[in-house]
Amino acid sequence: MINKIALLPVVVLILGLTGCTSNYTVNTKSGDSFISHGKPELDQSTGMTSYIDLNGDYHLMNTNDIAGMTKI
């Protein structure tokens, strides 16, 4: 019983942190817009930006093609 009570704050903390991920709108120079789940990541060595869309699919795009990103 004591273990379950001690585990409850940890479970609440984990559930709270998983909901804190913000979505971003990625705007390209060609005028397209994409919504990413979480902040897109830039790989300095390849010059590519990766992001995961709202469906959970992984995408890569050239960083030079990105006009801007907005947190939503």
Q: Which structural class should the secondary elements be placed in?
A: alpha+beta
Give the SSE order as H and E letters.
HEEEEEE
Largest sheet: 3 strands, antiparallel
Side by side, the strands of the main sheet go 2-1-6
CA-CA gap between termini: 42 Å
Query: Based on DSSP secondary structure assignment, what is the total number of beta strands?
Result: 6
CATH T-level topology of the domain at 22-71: SH3 type barrels
**Anisotropy-based shape:** elongated
Individual helix count: 1
Runs in which pLDDT lies below 50 for 5 or more consecutive residues are none
Write the layout of secondary structure elements.
Elements: H1 2-18, E1 23-28, E2 33-37, E3 41-43, E4 48-52, E5 58-62, E6 66-71
Antiparallel strand pairs: 1-2, 1-6, 3-4, 4-5
Main attributes of the structure:
72 residues, alpha+beta, SH3 type barrels, three-stranded antiparallel sheet, 1 helix, YgdI/YgdR-like_SH3-like
Q: In words, what does this structure look like?
A:
With 72 residues, this protein is an alpha+beta fold. It has a domain at 22-71: SH3 type barrels. Helices cover 24% and strands 42% of the residues. The protein contains one helix and six strands. The strands form two sheets. A three-stranded antiparallel sheet has the order 2-1-6, with no helix packed on it. A three-stranded antiparallel sheet has the order 3-4-5, with no helix packed on it. Strand 1 and strand 2 form a beta hairpin. The mean pLDDT is 85. Keywords: Cell membrane, Lipoprotein, Membrane, Palmitate, Signal. Residues 23-70 form the Lipoprotein YgdI/YgdR-like SH3-like domain. InterPro entries: LSM_dom_sf (IPR010920), YgdI/YgdR-like (IPR010305), YgdI/YgdR-like_SH3-like (IPR047807).
